[in-house]
Every structure is written in structure tokens, then in C-alpha cells.
Design brief:
The protein is of the alpha/beta class and 316 residues long. Helices cover 38% and strands 14% of the residues. The protein starts with 7 loop residues before the first strand and ends with a helix.
């Protein structure tokens, strides 16, 4: 029996690669996310990103991506109740049945290695969201830590994503890439998203979105997932809590984000979590904090699942 009448949708985690390298499972006692620890919710949909490590070559990142896709498929064979989804129709079916599901994503475009044809394989493997850059300078262009716009190849890759039906993600992007992506998506009539990005008005970090950037995502019909990465939330020396995360959510709500904010926790991609989180099993703490602050039941449900569901229906 579920504790909450709504589901949980999260737009970013690094759990799949952590599973592969530890040879663990969708149900585990090692990682921040274990699918069996989400039973408090009516359903669970997790966007699972396969990241491109800065310590690996472009080709090594590509091979890692292929291996991770294969690993997920092998492990899923043991869990018919966990459903990989690629379309809104598949998602509607699992939501209606109260099941657990995941959607694949890529984090960091260096795995393309300058080869546009790899996007066809990425799409065929089920990837529907693509974080354009992660850090430094790659074939795609410059990330938040170095600046610079999309490269010529990066522009071609972005245009092909929009043609294929892969949603671009501007988390980790430089300001130049953010505005370029917004413009190309506007021309194509396609929304974009920031899968795991917090508010620069609450904590001024290069990984966070300015108010203007957030409002542009809202106007585009996009979605922003709030991250649990403590250095992107506040002063870690003073302590970062569940309440700090809700501070970022409240700022986005003040900017008109009632239908455009969700969770993108970055679980298994971060070190310390906000106190007193222990993993995905702690998500109920956010419901309690929102209730304490007077959030309506409808708004809480939208933040936990409804806004992400609506976005997935628009883009998949």
C-alpha cells in the first residue's frame, strides 16, 4: 500500500553506471537509488543518465555508453515490473498500472566524438534526453566552467537531436550554450529542459540558473529538475538541508514555475546529500517540508510527478 496518492518522477540520476561498475541491480543496498525503496509512491519514473567521464577519451565514453545500455537490458530481464520507456504511450501504461519505469539519457556530448551518426544509435537505444555538455571543452563546445558557445559540430548535433526527438538539456551548459539552445529550440517549436539545475538567486553558482534563464525555460514550455547536489544548493559549511532544496523550489515558484519544476536529484552522482536524506527512500521528507510551508496538495503532486508527466507527454 502506497503512502502517497501521487507518483514520483525524477529527471536525473547517475545510478546506471554506478550499478554497472559495482555489478549491482535495480534493487540494491549500495546506491542512493534502489527501485524497491520507492514503494511509498503510486508509481516511479526515473530518468537514468549515462554520463561521459572527463577522465575518459571520447571513444571510451562511447563504449561505456553502449555497455551501460546492454547492462540495463540484462538486469531488467530479472525485473519485469521495471519497464524501460521511450514513448508517452509506454509511460501512460506504466503510470496507469502503478509500475516502476525508467527513461535513458546521456550526460555530456563528448561521447559523440564528432560523429553525428552516433545520435541515430543513441536514439535507437532509447535515449530521449541529452545533456549537451558536462565540464570543460569538448566536441560540443564549452561547459559552465570554461564558457564558450556550441562548436560547429555542436550546432549540427543539436539540430539533429531536435529532428530525431531527443530533448536537449542545458544543465552544465555555459551561458552561451544556454541561449543558443533556447534559440534553436524556439525556431524548431520544441521545449527544452534543465534536468538538474538550481536557482542562482538562492545560491550563486555557475551550475545554477539565473531568474532570466528559468523564465525562458518556462516560456518555452520546458521543465527544470531541482538537484540535491549540496555545493549547488548553499553554503556547505553552514549545512544544507531538505529545507534548502525547498528554498530553491520556492524561488522557481515565485518566477511562475508552478507547472515547470520537478525533482532532478542527481542521486548517485553527488557526494553528501541534504540533511537528513539517506537516499530515494527519503523523498517523503520533501512532501512533509512542503506541507509545513503550506503548499497545496495539488502543487505537491505536480512537483513530485505531475509537471514531469505533462512535459513527457509534450515531448515524447
Amino acid at each position: 500500500m502506497t503512502k502517497y496518492p501521487f507518483g514520483l518522477c525524477d529527471t536525473h540520476c547517475d545510478t546506471l553506471l554506478e550499478m554497472m561498475y559495482a555489478d549491482t541491480d535495480f534493487h540494491n543496498d549500495r546506491h542512493h537509488i534502489s527501485f524497491d525503496r520507492t514503494d511509498d509512491f503510486a508509481f516511479y519514473t526515473q530518468v537514468m543518465a549515462i554520463y561521459s567521464s572527463a577522465r575518459k577519451t571520447d571513444e571510451e565514453c562511447w563504449q561505456q555508453f553502449l555497455s551501460a545500455c546492454d547492462y540495463a537490458e540484462r538486469r531488467r530481464a530479472y525485473h519485469p515490473d521495471i519497464v524501460p520507456c521511450r514513448t508517452k504511450e509506454e509511460l501512460e501504461a506504466v503510470w496507469g498500472a502503478g509500475k516502476k519505469s525508467y527513461i535513458l539519457a546521456v550526460e555530456g556530448g563528448k561521447l559523440l566524438g564528432g560523429d553525428l551518426s552516433r545520435l541515430d544509435e543513441i536514439y535507437a537505444r532509447g535515449v530521449r534526453f541529452f545533456t549537451l555538455v558536462w565540464g570543460g571543452e569538448t566536441c560540443m563546445g564549452g561547459a559552465h566552467d570554461v564558457g564558450g558557445g556550441l562548436s560547429e559540430f555542436g550546432i549540427a548535433a543539436l539540430k539533429k537531436m531536435l529532428t530525431l526527438g531527443i530533448v536537449p538539456d542545458v544543465s552544465h551548459a555555459s551561458k552561451e550554450i544556454f541561449y543558443q539552445t533556447a534559440a534553436y529550440c524556439d525556431d524548431a517549436g520544441v521545449p527544452f529542459m534543465a534536468t538538474h539545475s538550481n536557482s542562482a538567486s538562492v545560491w550563486n553558482h555557475t551550475r545554477c540558473l539565473t531568474d532570466e534563464q528559468f523564465k525562458m525555460i518556462v516560456r518555452a514550455g520546458g521543465l527544470v529538475g531541482v538537484s540535491f547536489c549540496t555545493p549547488h544548493l548553499g553554503d556547505t559549511s553552514a549545512g544544507v538541508t531538505v529545507g534548502t532544496v525547498v528554498d530553491h523550489i520556492e524561488r522557481y515558484l515565485e518566477l511562475g514555475g508552478e507547472k515547470h519544476v520537478c525533482f532532478g536529484g542527481d542521486l548517485d552522482g553527488i557526494g553528501d546529500m541534504p540533511t537528513p536524506m539517506e537516499g530515494v527512500q527519503s523523498m517523503g521528507l520533501y512532501c512533509e517540508e512542503m506541507q509545513r510551508r503550506g503548499f497545496s496538495d495539488a502543487l505537491i503532486s505536480d512537483i513530485f510527478c505531475g509537471n514531469a508527466q505533462a512535459f513527457f507527454r509534450r515531448v515524447l
